[in-house]
Amino acid sequence: MSEASSLGVTPGYWDDACKHLSKRDRVMKKLIPQFGEARLQSRGDAFTTLARSIVGQQISVKAAQSVWDKFAALVSGPSYSIDPRLVLAQETPSLRAVGLSVRKAEYLRDLARHFAEGEVHVSQWQHMDDEAIIDELVAIRGIGRWTAEMFLIFHLMRPNVLPLDDLGLLKGISNSYFSGEPVSRAEARELGECWAPYRSVATWYLWRSLDPLPVDY
């Protein structure tokens, strides 16, 4: 799967995934048609996508967008393409002035350094497996496994990611498969076995079952 870099890119495997899931899972068979032609979409470049994820940590969507707009203006890049070198050129006080915490400013500079110095192998990601990419990403300050998995799903559009630390996924499974009873990660993992090799797609539809508006990551 090549890295998506333009707006509105959708995965070519989606229709096959829907057929597969509908055949193997009675809940998916009912759930998928409810969302018509809605699809996962990837947008932006790798650095910008990860920078947005850091900016948005632990604040509301509205607040995150406000800070992001100011940050993007500061580094003189369009919203969907920011040069890591321009971020490295900013000192912490300048980043703080657009609404970033000290910690997030440090995280963004560390992210920029990893990209500028070639410590992440963006051009090789299409040939690397999911876990190898996750290992590279979690070495960056401010990026944990959950963020790395969201990146795999929403940016690289990897088809078979099951983010077991995602509360939305666990809630969707609870509501759709267990009549609202709490679900353990082990139970979620076992259920996800029948979704392979399209666990990302099943996850996306369970998110939609909680919030019909597609996530823009």
From TrEMBL:
Record keywords, A-Z: DNA damage, DNA repair
Gene3D superfamilies: 1.10.1670.40, Hypothetical protein, domain 2
HhH-GPD domain: residues covered: 55-211
Enzyme Commission designation: 3.2.2.21
Matching PANTHER family: DNA-3-METHYLADENINE GLYCOSYLASE
Listed InterPro entries: Alkylbase_DNA_Glycosylase/TA (IPR051912), DNA_glycosylase (IPR011257), HhH-GPD_domain (IPR003265)
Domain of life: Bacteria
Reactions mediated catalytically: Hydrolysis of alkylated DNA, releasing 3-methyladenine, 3-methylguanine, 7-methylguanine and 7-methyladenine
Protein name, as recorded: DNA-3-methyladenine glycosylase II
